[in-house]
Amino acid sequence: MRADCLILGGGIIGLMTAREIVRKYPDWDVAVLEKSHYFGDGATGRNSGVLHSGIYYEYGSLKHRLCMEGNRLWRSEPSAIIWACGKMIVGDDLSELSKRAIQNDVRHRKATAQELLQLNHFTKASEAIFVHDTAVLDIGRFIREIVVELTEMGVSLVPNFEDTGLPPANWTINCAGFGAIDVRTKLGFKGYSQKLVKGRWMASTYRFEAPWLIYPKPLPNLLGLGVHSCIEPDGSVRFGPDTVPVDRMDYSFGDASELAEAIVQQFPGVPKSSLRPSTVGIRTKLNEATDFVIQSPEKGYAEALGIESPGLTAAPAIAKMLSSLV
Ligand SMILES: Cc1cc2nc3c(=O)[nH]c(=O)nc-3n(C[C@H](O)[C@H](O)[C@H](O)COP(=O)(O)OP(=O)(O)OC[C@H]3O[C@@H](n4cnc5c(N)ncnc54)[C@H](O)[C@@H]3O)c2cc1C
Q: Among 123, 40, 64, which Cα is nearest to 314's?
């Protein structure tokens, strides 16, 4: 195989980047090489599925700017958004978060007294901020659709790729998520390393019919966003994710008792007996940077590193940025 552009990694970033490259260079041979036996098997298929607003991130950072742009771009993907519900962030002192929301130009307001009463059916809320531009994506469906779209565009989609040496290409774009550091190291680039933080969710049979997603205040240093409610495409609810540092990619669930306790602390109405282990995902965090790193260190090679949350939301904007480097 020889391609004009090889994309390593068939998660949301790799697939959306392939589409941007073909839109920019319709005559190019583009291939997406995916290590797993299906596309979206990494963080893309193992997250909260939430379209974030941009409230949490440092003003002007790539996370902030690409999250805001990605949020807007997702709205032109037919059928991707399944619930434009907004989000309630609850906590004791939300003044810092409010300041950041204003600075980041994120649409938000204080919850009304009526909403606080309603929130207290589900959680413990003395204060809450409602964030408008938060929604739920059906990412499984979107991956199936973009795989069909890319095939029709003539992109070669190669699952089960064994990385024993790359086929020749004019451009290689590294979108390998948890494998991105390995890929760049093999290509001779130095300077970045990563840590892995597992996140686990529990599904619940309890009828949790809050009209919004409910989040606590984020954890210090944005290690995670805190155990929150998530809505599945079928309307069922899951709670999570927690933050468990791990030293390898291992999706086993392990002991669920601490997570179950954290869920009932946050959502006292949810019976522990209604909870069962559900999805597991692994966050990839750079040791050397807190922001996304999206760059082309030399002609013919571009990369996206540290694409943790809000990478799903930012994906369409990251794809545009990567394709602008090519
Ligand atoms: C717990 C958790 C919750 C999250 N919640 C949200 C959320 O609600 N909203 C949000 O916006 N973001 C969220 N995120 C972040 C989001 O999921 C990621 O930022 C996004 O999925 C990253 O996409 P990706 O394509 O870079 O990575 P991935 O989806 O991991 O794709 C990388 C792909 O590369 C493949 N690969 C690895 N090595 C190689 C190789 N050598 N050759 C070829 N292929 C290779 C992998 O198999 C994988 O499929 C969350 C993430 C986690 C873990």
A: 64
Total-model pTM: 0.97
Question: 235, 109 in Cβ contact below 8 A?
Answer: no
The Cβ-side half-sphere exposure at 251, using a 13 Å CA radius, reads 12
- Secondary structure class of 266 (helix, strand, coil): helix
With vertex at residue 141, the alpha carbon angle to CA 74 and CA 172, rounded to the nearest 5 degrees, is: 70
Whether 129 is in the pocket of ligand 1, judged by its Cβ within 6 Å, is no
How far is the centre of ligand 1, averaged over its atoms, from the C-alpha of 115 (Å)?
34
Mean residue pLDDT across the chain: 95
When pLDDT is averaged across residues 211-216 and rounded to a whole number, the result is: 95
**pLDDT tens digits for 295-307?**
999 999 999 999 9
Q: Does residue 21 line the site of ligand 1, with CB under 6 A?
A: no
Q: Which residue has the tokens 């190019």?
A: 28
Residue with CA closest to ligand 1 atom 9: 50
- For residue 11, the CA-to-ligand 1 centroid distance in Å is 6
CA angle 188, 193, 197 (to 5 degrees): 140
Q: Strand pairing of 50-51 and 135-137?
A: antiparallel
Among 57, 146, 309, the mutation site with the greatest number of ligand 1 atoms within 8 A of its Cβ is 309
Residue 153 three-state SS: helix
Question: Which ligand 1 atom lies nearest to the CA of residue 45?
Answer: 29
Ligand 1, atom nearest to 36 Cα: 47
Scan for tokens 């990619």, then name that residue. 249
pLDDT (tens digit per residue) in 265-287: 999 989 999 999 999 999 999 99
Residue 179 Cβ < 6 Å to ligand 1: yes
Q: How far apart are alpha carbons 121 and 93 in whole angstroms?
A: 20
